[in-house]
Amino acid sequence: MVKLLKVHGSGNDFFLLDQTKLSEPLNEKEIRTLAQQMCDRKKGTTGGADGLLLVTKSNKGALARMRVINADGSEASMCGNGLRTVARYLAEKNSLTNDETFQVETMQANLQVKGAKQFADQVPAFDVEISPVSFQAADIGMHLDHAELQDTIIPELSPSLKFSAVAVPNPHLIAFVDHATLAGDQLVELGARLNSANPYFPDGVNVSFVEILAENEIFVRTYERGVGLTNACGTAMSASSLLYVMQVLGQRGLEKELRVNNPGGMVKTVVHQRENGEYWISLIGNATFVAEVTLNLKEAMQGNFASLVWQDSGEQAAYLGFAAAVEQTNK
Ligand SMILES: N[C@H](CCC[C@H](N)C(=O)O)C(=O)O
């Protein structure tokens, strides 16, 4: 029997598995199969998840490495909401204090993480670095007639929406929209189209619609590659904050705390610029441990969850109270 955690950041939910605790680490095929079986929203007895987060040893001097496996078994380079929960897991595992900064290795970079002030009673929060940022079509996997895309109409995608594209390093396609468009069907239509066989983003892309609510406040809704519509996507909220600062606020938006609402709750972001001009983003939000899940990995890989034991942490009730209060202030 193996212990996993069911975790979430803004309702973007994952199973977290510490591979270093297994006597025999899973191979690539087993990892893919486990993610597909456990994340299935209909088959799993636990309601599934958006993905699987794997904690492994770092070979690049970080405290540990995080791998992100989407619900369909594909691997993402990063996960902002997931990284907050992995940061909390590692801080607790290594008995670190809340303000101690440490590094987590991800596919493209070692990222700085640290504890943050809790969002509410029993709603612990973490602050994680989102980087590297690139606007180059090649880094985004974008095959349109543009080397970069900033606030531009692309008739093949929509006759009226203006799109921007950025890798953070997950690939994101983002449009600022009005409320009706944010809430309408277009996001799912476009997300589904660009994440099945298509000439523009052959490897898929995370698609987000963003509504500006106030000077320091936006709402982001995302259709994720490898998953579908999610409650929230951390890298999408970071990418959207960056574009909002670049295209709307300008210099005065740098180093400023933004409030980013999403269907699963709310996070805060801060956009920074290094001396060499490169941008990076701080993503600050809840890191909730919903339950400890004990199961037999071999059985789970076959979609058999009969011997699974679910031990609730009680944190989710506190999170739901917080999310309800956020929704109330948004009305
Ligand atoms: N939900 C994650 C991102 C997953 C990205 C993934 N869907 C992909 O790029 O394939 C987040 O909080 O940042």
Assembly state (oligomeric): single chain
Counted up, domains total 2
N- to C-terminal separation? 46 Å
Strand residue percentage: 35-45%
Major sheet summary line: 19 strands, mixed
What is the SS-derived class? Answer: alpha+beta
Specify the CATH class of the largest domain: Alpha Beta
Bound chemical compounds: 2,6-diaminopimelic acid
Would you give the CATH topology of the largest domain? Diaminopimelate Epimerase, Chain A, domain 1
Number of strands: 19
Based on the coordinates given, report the CATH architecture of the largest domain: Roll
| Count, helices | 8
Please state the average pLDDT score: 96
Strand/helix succession: EEHEEEHEEEHEEEHHEEEHEEEEHEH
Rg, rounded, reads: 19 Å
Describe the protein's architecture and organization.
The protein is an alpha+beta fold and 331 residues long. The chain has two domains: 2-130 and 287-330, Diaminopimelate Epimerase, Chain A, domain 1, CATH 3.10.310; 137-281, Diaminopimelate Epimerase, Chain A, domain 1, CATH 3.10.310.10. 24% of the residues lie in helices and 37% in strands. The chain contains eight helices and 19 strands. The protein has a 19-stranded mixed sheet that branches. A hairpin with a 4-residue loop joins β4 and β5. The longest helix has 16 residues, at 234-249. The protein starts with a strand and ends with a helix. 2,6-diaminopimelic acid binds at residues 12, 70, 76, 79-82, 170, 206, 224-227, 233-235. It catalyses: (2S,6S)-2,6-diaminopimelate = meso-2,6-diaminopimelate. Homodimer. InterPro entries: DAP_epimerase_AS, DAP_epimerase_DapF.
